[in-house]
Amino acid sequence: MSEVEEVATPEEFVENEQETNYKPPPEKTIEEILQIDQEDESLRKYKEALLGQAQTGPVIVEPDNPRKVIVKRLVLVAADRPEIALDLTGDVSQLKKETFTIKEGVSYKIRIEFLVQREIVHGLKYVQKTSKLGITVDKMTHMVGSYAPKTEIQSYTTPAEDAPSGLLARGSYTVSSLFTDDDKNEHLKWEWTFEIKKDWKD
Which of 57, 111, 115, 142 would be a feasible disulfide site paired with 70, CB 3.0-4.6 Å? Predict the structure, then answer.
């Protein structure tokens, strides 16, 4: 696991952010953004590039889903191995029954695939806490960024990290994941498991 500074776990995230002086900017609709500083040509072009499809009207990909961010898949990406994906569109409580196998010491990344619809989302964050035998061994927050609505799937890939290695590192791990944003909206929270083995084979 990467040695990163301790940051908020899914359970602690909102509480810890309240202790800082950071205040996210007020949430604005796409229509409000388009109306601001219309006489500024360079800003107008920037907003056009930022908003893309959303300039011409609401982008709604799944009309029956009220969420602005719809998280679709978590994908494990390791060099010279087929990608392994978790479908996040169903009953996420069942995901702990599926276990990724990761070879000890290998470098890997996690890709989150998601849709953004209806409005811009500001300051998306991916928060992850990893535990083994009930003991937290790794915590991290990845700043994903702000995204305008699009009909296409958008994605974020974490920086590469090395799986732990050695006899004591092998075994099963539980990961608590949270996709949130500056406004503390909980877009999706789920748990999943992986197992560190000496080799990719079972």
Answer: 115
